[in-house]
Amino acid sequence: MVKFSKELEAQLIPEWKEAFVNYWQLKKQIKKIKLSQKSKQPHQVLDHEFGLSIFYPIRSLARNISNKLFHSDSKTEIIQVRSKSMEDGDEEVYQTELVQLFSEEDEVTVFFESLDGELNKVNQFYKNKESEFLERGEILNKQLGILLDLKRVLNEHRRKPNAGALSLSRSSSPARSSLCSESSANEISTDSQIDEIIAALEKKGINLISSGARKKPKKGKPKMAVRMEVPATTPTRTITAVTSMLWEDLVKNPKKEGAGDFISRKKIQCAEKMIRGAFVELYRGLVKRSHFISSDKVVRLMDEVESIFTKHFANNDRKKAMKFLRPQQHKESHMVTFFVGLLTGCFVSLFSVYAILAHLAGIFKPNSERSYVEIVYPVFSVFTLLSLHLFTYGCNLFMWKATRINYNFIFEFQPSTALKYRDAFLICTTFMTSVVAAMVIHLLLRASGFSPNHVDVIPGILLVIFIFVLVCPFDIFYRPTRYCFIRIIRNILCSPFYKVLMVDFFMADQLTSQIPLLRHMESTTCYFLAGSFKTHGYETCKSGRLYRELAYVISFLPYYWRAMQCARRWFDENDPNHLANMGKYVSAMVAAGARLTYSRQESHLWFFIVLITSVVATVYQLYWDFVKDWGLLNSKSKNLWLRDDLILKNKSIYYMSIVLNVVLRVAWVETVMGFRFNMIESRMLDFLLASLEVIRRGHWNFYRLENEHLNNVGKFRAVKAVPLPFRETDSDG
Hints:
The chain is mostly helical. The strands form 3 sheets. A 3-stranded mixed sheet has the order 4-5-7. It has a two-stranded antiparallel sheet with strand order 1-2. Strands 3-6 form a two-stranded antiparallel ribbon. Helix 4 packs parallel to helix 9 and helix 17 crosses helix 18. The protein is globular, with a radius of gyration of 35 Å. The protein starts with a helix and ends with a strand. This is XENOTROPIC AND POLYTROPIC RETROVIRUS RECEPTOR 1-RELATED. Belongs to the SYG1 (TC 2.A.94) family. InterPro entries: EXS_C, PHO1, SPX_dom. It is a multi-pass membrane protein.
C-alpha cells in the first residue's frame, strides 16, 4: 500500500509546485494537536472502586433517551466554513470559524488557519488556470477564423487562370519591382486582386499588416492588424528568417514599409498544422488537469474544442479526432519480460562460449596476430558500446519510474509510444545476443579454416542488418521510437538550424560520451569502403592522411553540435547562461584536439598543452555538472552542500555520486601518464575507458533529470505552448 504522501509527491508538477497543498506541514500540525491533547487530558479516575454497578446499563439507556427527547434542538456545530469576498470583490476566500471548545491560541485554531490558507491558495490557482485556458480558447478561435478566411480567399484565387502565390502588398525592392513591371495591365490586375483580398478580409475585421502602407484605415471601428509568422523550427525557415532579418537591417530602410508578404498554400498548410497542434495541446491540458472538470466553463470549452477539431481537422470523423485528442495507451505485456530473461540467458551462454573459444585460439595473447584486434575489434566495439548505452538508458528509465520522475513529460514523449524500461532492456539484450552470436560464428569459421576475406564480412553483414532495422518503414520493432531517434539525430546534425528541444540537447550530450564509438565507426567505414576486407589488410586506412585528419573532425563534432545548440538557444531565449555553456564545449574541443595530437607526437610542449587544456576543461565540466545540471553544491541549502529538494532519501548517495563523477571525469589522466602496453592491452584499456565514460553518462542522466523534475531548470512549461501563426500588431503598420 503506497502512502498518500508518495502519491502526492508523484503528482507534483515542477512549474506548479508552489500551488500544491503543503501536506507535510499540515501533517506536522495534526501531530502537534495529538500531543497537546495527550498532555492536557486529565487522568480518569473511576468513581467505583469495585467495578461497574449492575444498574449502569439502565442509567446509560435513560440518559440517551433524555438527551434525544429534551436536548435534540440544542446541538450546535463546532466548525463552520464561511466564504467572504475581499475588498476588491474579485476574489472569494474561505474562513473556518470554531464556535466553541477552542481558544485562539490552541493548536487546533492554528491548524484550521493553515488549512484555510491552503484551500484559498489552491482555489485561486484553479481560478487563474481556468481563466488562462478560456483565454487560450478564445485566441485559438480567432486564429482559426483567420485561417478559414485565408483558405477561402486562396481557393477562390486559385480558380482563376495564371494564379500563383498571393502578395498582400506591393514590393518596394528594385529587384521585385523590375519583375513585376513587365506590363501595366498585369500591375492593374494584381492591384485589383490585392484589393479584393484585403476587402474580403476587412469584412471579417482583419487588416493584414503589410497592407497598412497602402491606405490608412477609415474612421470608425479600428481593424485588427495581423502578421503571419511561421516559427523558425527547420533549417529552411531559419535561413529564411535570418536572411529576411539581414535584408531588413542592412539593405532596406526599416522605417519604410517592407516587401510584401506572400500567402501561399504551403504557408497556409503550415499555419493549419500549428493551429491544429495548439488545439490538441489545449484539449490535453484540460483533460490532464482533471480537477478543472468541476468547472462548467471548462466542460463547455472541452466540448467546443472537440466539435471544432472534429469539424475542421478531422473531416467530421469523431473517431479520427479522438486519436489526436485522446490517444490510447498500449497495455504492457508480460511477453516482453519473458523475452528479456530468455535473451539474457542466451547472451550469458554465448559470451561464455566466446570466452572459451578466444582462450583456446589464443587471440588475446601478446604474441598473437594483430589482424583480429585491428579489424574485428573496432566493428564489434561499436555494437558493444551502443548496447552498453542502451542498458544504462534502461536503468535510467527504471530509476526514473521508481522515483516517479515524469520523464515522458520532460522529454515530450507520447505516453502511448514512449519506450518503457522493459522495452529498453529487450532491445539491449536482443542487440547483445546478436553481436555475441556473430562473434562466436566468426571465431568458429576462422578456426575451421575459412578464408579471412569471407569471414571478415560477417561484421559488415551485421552492421547492414542493424541499419536496415533502424530505417525499416514497416510498423515493427518499435517504429515510433526508431523514427523519433532518427529525427533527433537529424536535428543534432543540422544544428543550429532546428529549434532545440530538451530531448535534442540531452541526446547530443550522450554523443559527447560516445566519441570512441564514432572513431570505431570511422575505422569500420574505411575498412569496408576501401575494400580492405578483401586484402585482409588493416594498414590501408591508418596510414592515410585523410583518415588521420578525419579523426580530429570526429573528435570535435559532438562538442561542435552541442555548442551550436547552445548558440541557438541563446539566439532564441537571449540567456547568457547558454553562452557560458557553449564555452564549456569549446574548451572540451580544445582539450580533445590537444590529447589527440599528443598521442601522435609526444613532446614536452604538447604534454604541458594537454595538461593545461584538460585541467581547464575538466574543472569547467565538473562545475557545470554539479552546479548547473545537478543543482548541487549549494552552500545555503538545508542539506549540506546539496540542494533543498532531494528525491533519494539517503543523502550519502549524492556525496558518493559527486566523488564518482569526479573520478570518471579525470580518466583522461591515463593518456598522459606514459604507461607502456602491448597492442592487446592498449585496445582493452581503451575499451574499458570508453565503457566507463558511457557508465558515467548514464549516472549523470539520472541526476540531470531529477533536477529538471524538481526545479524546472530548463524553464519548460507544464502545458506545452504551441506558437500560433497570426500575431496581432499595431493597426497603423
